[in-house]
Amino acid sequence: MSDNALIRHDRLSVDGTHKIYLAQFGNPEGVPILYLHGGPGAGCYLEELKLFDLNRYRVLLLDQRGCGHSLPQGCLQDNNLTALLEDIEKVRQWLNIDSWYMAGGSFGATLGLIYSGLYPQRVKSQVYWGAFIPSKDAVQWLYGQQGAALEFPNEYRRFSQGIGVQASTVELFQLYHQGMHHQDPSVKQHFIHRWIKWEARLALPDRFLRFVDEQRAEDLAKTELHFALNDYFDAERLLAKVTPKIKAPTYLLQGENDWVCPYKFVKSYQHRFSNTQIKYHLVLGGNHSLDNQAMCHAVQQTLEDFVYRPS
């Protein structure tokens, strides 16, 4: 990572296998805010610092297990929902922060919502965008044949090549698992690229995808598939259990053109769990990516209005 506004960076040993990477940016005395990246497996990028006023914030960029600068790179052993949640709490304890603010997108929002319900006294306020609600319907929308596939039929045809027209998502996941772990590097790379291209088409519908880092693409694809194959380690049930316990003011921003995590699944979540601490906002013109100007501006404004509190 760049040294621009860098306070320090560390690798924290969280078990006998994993060392997670934590980089701190901005003002050492500023408002501590933990940034939770998506994927799972995407890792953090310096570009995401644009969301924060580094004169005010002490921004904590955490690479989750097996991705980004965490070690071992691409490791799926003991890489699951419970472990990721425990890692977040270990980071808080290591930093000796009594309570903090949180922000993140996509699967990072899933993690943050669950964490704030498990540890309600530790979260002051939180802002999430493009939230992934890990329901069966949301997974079917993303990877099945009757959801986003109907909006992007040509792209889905390429993504699902090799399975029958009546195949289930489980069969699709099994196909990709075989491909991503194939002994032939060219076959492995082919399946990794197909996986990433499908999701990128939904997240960035107006942009051309370039693979600038093959290792990070592999980490992302394999980790996402690992969680999908394991039904996100029962994340839906846990989210349902802890949502009523969330005490922190919580803001969920969803783009009207988010094809990865459509707003309808967030609305369904809202109807099931009417926690008055959770506020919802549809971002007109927004999609799933912070590269979208409308989405980025909405997140920046929400962070400014609802997270930072002058003393």
Detailed description of the structure:
With 311 residues, the protein is α/β, with parallel strands linked by helices. It has two domains: 203 residues, Alpha/Beta hydrolase fold, catalytic domain (Rossmann fold, 3-Layer(aba) Sandwich); 95 residues, no CATH class. Helix content is 41%, strand content 17%. The chain has eleven helices and eight strands. Strands 1-2-4-3-5-6-7-8 form an eight-stranded mixed β-sheet, sandwiched between helices. The longest helix is centred in the middle third of the chain and has 19 residues. It is globular and about 55 Å long. The two termini are 31 Å apart. Keywords: Aminopeptidase, Cytoplasm, Hydrolase, Protease. Its main location: cytoplasm. It is found in: Cytoplasm.
Tell me the strand order in the biggest sheet. 1-2-4-3-5-6-7-8
The CATH class of the largest domain: Alpha Beta
Shape: globular
The end-to-end span amounts to 31 Å
According to CATH, what is the topology of the largest domain?
Rossmann fold
Q: How many independent structural domains?
A: 2
The proportion of residues forming helix, as a percent range, comes to 40-55%
The biggest beta sheet reads: 8 strands, mixed
CATH architecture annotation of the largest domain = 3-Layer(aba) Sandwich
What Rg, in angstroms, do the CA atoms define?
19 Å
* Content-based structural category: alpha/beta
CATH superfamily caption of the largest domain? Alpha/Beta hydrolase fold, catalytic domain
Q: Which whole number gives the mean pLDDT?
A: 93
Order of helical and strand elements: EEEEHEHEHHHHHHHEHEH
Beta-strand content estimate: 15-25%
| Beta-strand segment tally | 8
Contiguous uncertain segments of 5+ residues: none
Question: How large is the count of helical segments?
Answer: 11
Family: Belongs to the peptidase S33 family.
Domain AB hydrolase-1: 32-288
GO molecular function, one term: aminopeptidase activity
Subcellular location: Cytoplasm
